[in-house]
Amino acid sequence: MVTNRERMGDSMAMQREQTLGRMVMYLGTVGLLTLGTGLNAANGMAPISSTLAEVPISTARISRQDFRIESDPGIEIFVREVGSQSEAAGVPILLIHGGGPGGLASFDLEVPGYSLAANFAQAGHSVYVMNVRGWESSTRPEGLDEPAANNPPLVTSEAAVRDIGAVVGWIRDRTAQSQVALVGWATGGHWAGLYTSQNNEAISHLVMLNSLYGVNAPWPLTERFEDPDHPGRFNPDGGAYRLVDYDGFLRGWDHSIPVDDKTQWRDPAVADAYARRAVELDPTSKTRTPPSARIPTAYREESFNLAQGYRYWSAEDIYTPTLGLRGELDFWSRPEDLSALETDLINAPVVEIVTIPDATHYLFNDRPERGRHQFVQTVLAFLID
């Protein structure tokens, strides 16, 4: 018996191939990248062959324009629009950062070939990079200007989802497109999943990279975040935010790379741009020695809860094509998160689950052969429907 999900999956797969053909014809003069991944066979879809025609990325010039969008009263969200001279034939993409650096330091590095936003724009998408309140130049909650201990962890998922909703609505109006694709990294994937579960009609595709999904399974950071006097509970003593300096933004990345020579995995210029911009984009960074960025900490509390099995949303409420990705060397998410996500996505018409070998938490800023290449192509292929 063929299920509705299988019919929808087959139909969307056919549409994806047709659209891919049109895009290849449109951008047929540019070079192609390599794709090596698979579709979820449980959906009745055959794995993608490494010889499949790949999504082309042009060398068209990139344009950038910055905006501020009202979310809640008194809260303005920074959004950068990244486009190219090529026609935007694909769905608009919104990139959502996680609990470390904000959107620009994550997705729009000033190093040739290493702006994820530019890559997607040159493949035929209008791309938008946002900052949830409290990050980079979006409005900072008042508690971030006080000593951290004066307030509980700030910027909950509920607040982040309101910010995402404001930006999605603005993108739909600006592009005259009825739907937007969400690509969320780590906590950004959790936020994107929560938003989509409540607003399926506004989202064309959901992409979650290295994200936790409410599974009670071993987590390397449990002991670090746990209240020593109350096992199983988050330790709130850190307060509203944490301070992260240049070295702090690189520490997790350094530990993720399994060799002493980190340049085997990443370009030193990329690492420098990432950490430097993450600090500089906090307008108060130079008031501290060494300069540092204030990072809201509610995401840590919620991530601790997710890792203990608490769910802020259920994938059963997703009716949108969904791609879950994980770098094999990721320290944040776990294989159990992808497995549970796949099991619960019973209403998503298309489900793809991909683990990228030898890839870190920061894979889209690593060298192409260390996971970046496969991540970019996997996402672009998935967005063709």
Taken from the alpha-carbon principal axes, the silhouette is: globular
Total beta strands:
10
Q: Give the second-level CATH assignment, the architecture.
A: 3-Layer(aba) Sandwich
- The residue-averaged pLDDT reads 88
- Rg on CA atoms, Å: 20 Å
Low-confidence stretches: 1-52
Oligomer: single chain
Order of helices and strands: HEEEHHEHEHEHEHHEHEHEH
| Total of domains | 1
By secondary-structure content and strand pairing, the structural class works out as alpha/beta
Strand content: 15-25%
The neighbouring-strand order within the major sheet is: 1-2-4-3-5-6-9-10
Helicity range: 25-40%
The largest sheet, given as strand count, sense and whether it forms a barrel, is: 8 strands, mixed
CATH level-3 fold name: Rossmann fold
Distance between the termini: 25 Å
CATH superfamily: Alpha/Beta hydrolase fold, catalytic domain
Q: What CATH first level would be assigned?
A: Alpha Beta
Q: Please count the helical segments.
A: 11
What do these coordinates show?
By secondary structure, the protein is α/β, with parallel strands linked by helices. It has a single domain, classed as Alpha/Beta hydrolase fold, catalytic domain (Rossmann fold, 3-Layer(aba) Sandwich). Helices cover 32% and strands 16% of the residues. The chain contains 11 helices and 10 strands. The chain has helices at 4-26, 103-107, 116-122, 157-175, 187-198, 222-225, 246-256, 268-280, 298-307, 335-344, 372-382; strands spanning 62-70, 76-84, 93-96, 127-130, 180-185, 203-209, 241-245, 292-296, 322-327, 351-356. Strands 1-2-4-3-5-6-9-10 form an 8-stranded mixed beta sheet, with helices on both faces. The protein has a two-stranded antiparallel sheet with strand order 7-8. Helix 7 packs across helix 8. The protein is globular.
